[in-house]
UniProtKB/TrEMBL annotation:
Pfam families attached to this UniProt entry: BTB (PF00651)
Family matches, as CDD domains: BTB_POZ_ZBTB_KLHL-like
Protein name: BTB domain-containing protein
Domain of life: Eukaryota
Record-annotated BTB domain positions: 20-89
InterPro entries listed in its UniProt record: BTB/POZ_dom, SKP1/BTB/POZ_sf
Length: 142
């Protein structure tokens, strides 16, 4: 069954190399990211809506997200291309915490809210599971 998933993923991304790059300007600092249109449209309901060919202005190659934290968007880009678990400040999942510290919980929740805004329930599910797996048993009722 894993091969079916890999085949489907490979097919979904087979055109990304020839897909146009979309410039996404993020945050108050206006950090620029360049992401393949096919990846954005395949992964998110948000970008499906604004970049679909039937939407007025869909031919645009630039999207502005002034209210998004660039660190979270960087994690988003990493996620849609690699499924690697790195987040804002690169600490939430990488350092093998026995306990989740408040600053990490806030960052994970910010990331979860961004995933919700993007229409990415799979990423939201991953974030919840990753958070739960790192909390002490006394916090999750084990």
């Amino acid at each position: 069954m894993a091969n079916v998933t890999r085949d489907a993923d490979a097919e979904a991304y087979s055109s990304f190399a020839t897909s146009p790059l979309i410039k996404i300007v993020v945050g108050d600092a206006q950090i620029e990211f360049h992401v393949h249109k096919d990846v954005l449209v395949t992964e998110t309901v948000f970008f499906q809506r604004i970049l679909s060919n039937s939407t007025p202005g869909a031919e645009t190659k630039e999207v502005k997200l002034p209210d998004v934290d660039p660190a979270i968007f960087k994690y988003f880009v990493n996620w849609v291309y690699t499924r690697a678990a790195k987040t804002k400040r690169n600490t939430y999942f990488d350092q093998g915490y026995d306990n989740i510290h408040p600053e990490n919980i806030d960052g994970i929740l910010e990331t979860w809210r961004f995933a919700e805004d993007m229409g990415m329930p799979g990423w939201q599910h991953y974030l919840v599971r990753a958070l739960g797996s790192r909390m002490p048993a006394s916090c999750v009722g084990h």
